[in-house]
Amino acid sequence: MDAPTDPREPEDVDALVGALLTASRALVGVSARSLAGVEDHVTLAQFRTLVVLQGHGPTRLSLLAERLGVGPSTAVRAVDRLVAAGYADRRASDRDRREVVIEASAAGTDLVRAVTARRRAAIERIVRAMPPTGREELVAALTAFADAAGEPDAPSPESASLLGW
C-alpha cells in the first residue's frame, strides 16, 4: 500500500512537472541545434546509439537494445548504418569469440565529442543568463531528478567519456 501523501503534494508535483516540461523544451532545442551540421551523417536515434556506446564501451547488441529502450531489430538497423558510415565497429568479444560487441569508432567518438562540446557551450550561455541566486538549489534539484531517472552524472568537459545526449 502506498504511503499517505501530503495534501500539498499534488500542487507541488504539478508545478514541478510543468516547470520540467518547459525546461525540457528548451533543452530539446539546444540538443537539436547541437546536432546541426551532422544530421546529414547520423539521425537522432543513431546519435543516441553512439552516445550510449561512448558512455559504456564495447557492448553486446542485446544490452545495447536494452539501454536504448528499443527492440533488437531496431538496434541492429542503427548499428548496421553506423558501421557502414564508419562511426561504429563490430567485433568478436574478447571474453567469448562467439559473442559480437559493438563500440563507437574513433570517428564516432569524435562526432559525440564535437556535438557535446556545442551542446555544453549552448547550455553554459543559458546558465550564465540566469540570475546567480538559486543556481545551487537548481543543481541539487536537477541532480535529484537525474538520480531518480537513473541517469549517470554528466562528466566534466575534460572527461574522456562524454555522455552527450
Provide a quick synopsis of the model.
This protein has 165 residues and is mainly alpha-helical. The protein contains six helices and three strands.
Task: Lay out the secondary structure.
Elements lengths: L8 H26 L9 H13 L2 E2 H8 L3 H14 L2 E5 L7 E5 L1 H24 L5 H15 L16
Antiparallel strand pairs: 1-3, 2-3
Helix pairs in contact: 1-5, 2-4, 3-4
CATH architecture annotation name: Orthogonal Bundle
Walk across the major sheet and give the strand order: 1-3-2
Number of strands: 3
Q: Give average pLDDT, whole number.
A: 85
What are the key terms here?
single chain, 165 residues, mainly alpha, Arc Repressor Mutant, subunit A, 6 helices, disordered C terminus
What can you tell me about this protein's structure?
This protein has one domain: Winged helix-like DNA-binding domain superfamily/Winged helix DNA-binding domain (Arc Repressor Mutant, subunit A, Orthogonal Bundle), CATH 1.10.10. The radius of gyration is 19 Å and the shape is globular. The chain has six helices and three strands. A three-stranded antiparallel sheet has the order 1-3-2. Strand 2 (88-92) and strand 3 form a beta hairpin. It has helices spanning 9-34, 44-56, 61-68, 72-85, 106-129, 135-149; strands at residues 59-60, 88-92, 100-104. Helix 1 packs across helix 5 (106-129), helix 2 packs across helix 4 (72-85) and helix 3 packs across helix 4. The longest helix is centred in the N-terminal third of the chain and has 26 residues, at 9-34.
